[in-house]
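Protocol step 4 of 5: obtain the predicted structure for the target chain.
Materials: sequence only (see below). No template structures provided, no constraints applied. The aim of this step is simply to have a reference model before the mutagenesis design in step 5. Sequence pasted as it appears in the construct record:
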Amino acid sequence: MADRMESDQLIYYVEDEKNIRELTVYALSQAGIEAKGLPDDAAFRRACAERTPDAVLLDIMLPDTDGLTILKRIRQTPGLSQVPVMMLTARDSELDTVTALDGGADDYLAKPFGMMEMVSRVRALLRRAPSRAAASAAVSDVMNLGPLSLSPSRHEVSLDGETLSLTVREFDLLSFLMRSPGVVFNRETLLQRVWGWDFDGGSRTVDVHVQTLRQKLGDHADLIETVRGVGYRLRG
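Step 4 output (structure tokens):
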């Protein structure tokens, strides 16, 4: 029963030390738990845009953003806020532990840790994870970001309480960006994720739709930011 429960669950492990990351992911896979290792916060953001994890393992000391800051963002992000998080870190003082737990971590395991204990704690973490159906329902209900409110299930968008009239592609593009505020996506990724792999239009299509979305956002047009040489993001 445990194997069936874990078979469709996915864990993200954010750890910059390659050897530790690969060993932990291997130990989890040997226990029948699907896990993906990620070296930094940027990779974690991209992974979350592709699929919401069922649990997250976080190192505190990372090269781009510390784990406690990532934890805080997880707890404030719609669709991620209920995902259980365990800190795996060399910082093992009582203050570090209390800070992480008070910040919203579900568990805390100090390095070096035994693989059997780690797997056991991860299984306990997964038992506390909301079901994928419940998570999907929560995500599909409504997303709010500043003055924007978007309901995928009702296919409605409002800005400062006023309904916006969007085309299907404008809605899909805005919905995709709202799921990952602050994450920069290049034009090719947006084409693949919003228009589909078989879309043969050029990247100019993305620029045109961003332009029309900004026009409809009016005074809030700057919610969609251009990152020069990279692509677009929704301001978080």
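Step 4 remarks: The radius of gyration is 19 Å. Residues 115-128 form the longest helix (14 residues).
Proceed to step 5.
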